[in-house]
UniProtKB/TrEMBL annotation:
Lineage: Bacteria, Bacillati, Actinomycetota, Actinomycetes, Catenulisporales
EC number: 3.4.13.-
Enzyme class: hydrolase
Species whose genome carries this gene: Actinospica durhamensis
PROSITE patterns: RENAL_DIPEPTIDASE_2 (PS51365)
Gene Ontology molecular functions: metallodipeptidase activity
Record's keyword annotation contains Protease: yes
Entry keyword annotation includes Hydrolase: yes
UniProt keyword list: Dipeptidase, Hydrolase, Protease
Gene Ontology biological-process annotations: proteolysis
Signal peptide interval: none
Protein name, per record: Membrane dipeptidase
């Protein structure tokens, strides 16, 4: 396999920002591939993962680190994973930590990939209201720029998309949102239940994001967002990223055309200045799909047993879009948007410009 130094950034004409993705090679570390959640140490950030990210045209990606689910102690595990990723970035000059919107622009200019530290569950802040600001401040100082309030189940901030009661944001959750606003961290409502999302958007002093989702009007599944949620986020200056996931269609067998339909719907609801992409996957494609399918049923069963799965996850559905993966995924999406009549200015916004502009509003230029 070629090394990362033999790749150069593909010039797609504008920055490409993945509002939620991975910076790893899914073909390595297969001994943990069927587990409930891989840790950052188990993910392999190798020459292939970095080189193919550059070759795809990727300028920056929001990665998931820290506690999301499972038996790890949330705070301790999160601090450890921050240490792991700081070590990865220190050893890979092709990668750079993103703290501001300008860091994304610089990564694009310099032919590097900006890495945005993000959480997909906020429980690492703990349960003591007196510690919220110190914990959020610590994470922000370490470079965390995105914190999602909930994963699929409920937590003490609010309900996730699969929580049965659809409660809204709790008092504790409001205090966390206040602290995230104060420390210039994105409040991400991906995976949240509808009431928690609407409450957080209305409560937050700063615009919020839904970095990886679909549109429920197109595919009526809990992981997708209603038009009311999408519209309110956009009206208040936020950002919506469309994922490359099976929830884009009721069959669970999503294709690139389905991604386009959700982007088109989101643009129609939110306007062209609020919509982007958050694939929820890596650039490097899985090489052996037959072997992957062999352990997929086990993985889906583990998630269901742990109460963290989502409606639409089944043993016969892949957690990615089958014809929108690998090094050409962004080029393919651009071509399909062109075929829908989108001009280059609108496409540039969707592929990265809107996220960068939202980052300026939250993090600063």
């Amino acid at each position: 396999m070629s090394t990362a130094t033999e790749y150069v950034r593909a010039d797609l004409g504008f920055p490409v920002v993945n509002a939620l993705g991975e910076m790893s090679n899914p073909n390595a570390g297969q001994e943990t591939a069927g587990s409930l959640q891989q840790t950052s140490e188990e993910m392999v950030v190798d020459d292939r993962a970095i080189g193919e990210s550059l070759a795809s045209g990727l300028s920056a990606v929001n990665i998931t680190l820290g506690y999301t689910l499972g038996d790890h102690p949330p705070y301790e595990h999160t601090v450890h994973e921050l240490d792991v990723w700081d070590g990865i970035l220190a050893s890979r000059p092709e990668l750079v930590k993103v703290r501001t919107a300008e860091d994304i622009r610089a990564a694009h200019r310099d032919g590097r990939v900006g890495v945005i530290y993000g959480f997909q569950n906020a429980v690492a802040v703990g349960e003591d209201p007196a510690l919220i600001d110190a914990r959020v401040g610590e994470f922000a100082d370490r470079g965390v720029r995105v914190i999602q309030l909930t994963y699929n189940p409920a937590n003490h901030l609010g309900d996730g998309a699969m929580a049965p009661h659809n409660r809204g944001l709790t008092d504790f959750g409001r205090q966390v949102v206040d602290s995230l606003n104060a420390h210039k961290v994105m409040v991400d409502l991906s995976h949240s239940g509808e009431s928690t999302c609407l409450d957080a958007v209305r409560y937050s002093a700063e615009p919020i994001s839904i970095n990886h989702t679909g549109c429920r009007a197109v595919a009526d599944l809990p992981r997708n967002k209603t038009d009311e949620e999408l519209r309110l986020v956009a009206e208040r200056g936020g950002f919506v990223g469309i994922y490359f996931m099976p929830f884009l269609t009721l069959s669970g067998h999503a294709h690139a055309a389905d991604v386009v339909e959700h982007i088109v719907h989101a643009v129609n609801v939110c306007g062209e200045d609020a919509v982007g992409i958050g694939s929820d996957g890596s650039v490097t494609a899985i090489d052996d799909l037959d072997a992957y399918r062999d352990h997929l049923a086990e993985h889906v069963a583990l998630r269901a047993a742990a109460g963290v799965g989502a409606a639409g996850e089944r043993a016969d559905t892949l957690p990615f879009v089958i014809d929108l993966r690998g090094v050409d995924q962004f080029r393919t999406l651009i071509r399909l948007l062109e075929e829908r009549g989108y001009n280059q200015e609108r496409i540039a916004k969707i592929m990265g410009g809107n996220f960068i502009a939202y980052g300026e509003r939250i993090w600063g230029a």
